[in-house]
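User: I'm writing a tutorial on reading structure tokens. Could you give me a worked example: one chain, its sequence, then its tokens, then a sentence or two explaining what the tokens reveal?
Assistant: Sure. Here is the example chain.
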Amino acid sequence: MSPHLSIYRWPITMTLSILHRVTGVLLSFGLVLLVAWLVVTADGADAYQSLANGLQSVFGRILLAAWSFAFFYHLANGVRHFAWDLGYGFEKSQANASGWAVIISTVVLTVLYWLVL
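And here are its predicted structure tokens:
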């Protein structure tokens, strides 16, 4: 094993970049759930109720919470990328600060969403 693996620390920007890609994939899987919801809504009350019961289970709520976290993270990091596209925030300290702002805003938005819901 290379010695650099034991001394190297991942920078927050690299971690957030990987997480941005992962949340994009999770959002794509979440769209399948959205389409399923639309199909069962058109299919009738019984089909809708069975999906609603599944989404109200512990697993369903965890799935929806993960999807909302992915949405808010992808949104916040997308705003960060937009600022980068405009030429702002490329200094190391600015990139680190905006990274922490993305994490904090993601957690706050997710918690607020679930408190209001």
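What the tokens reveal: The mean pLDDT is 93. The first helix runs from residue 4 to 7.
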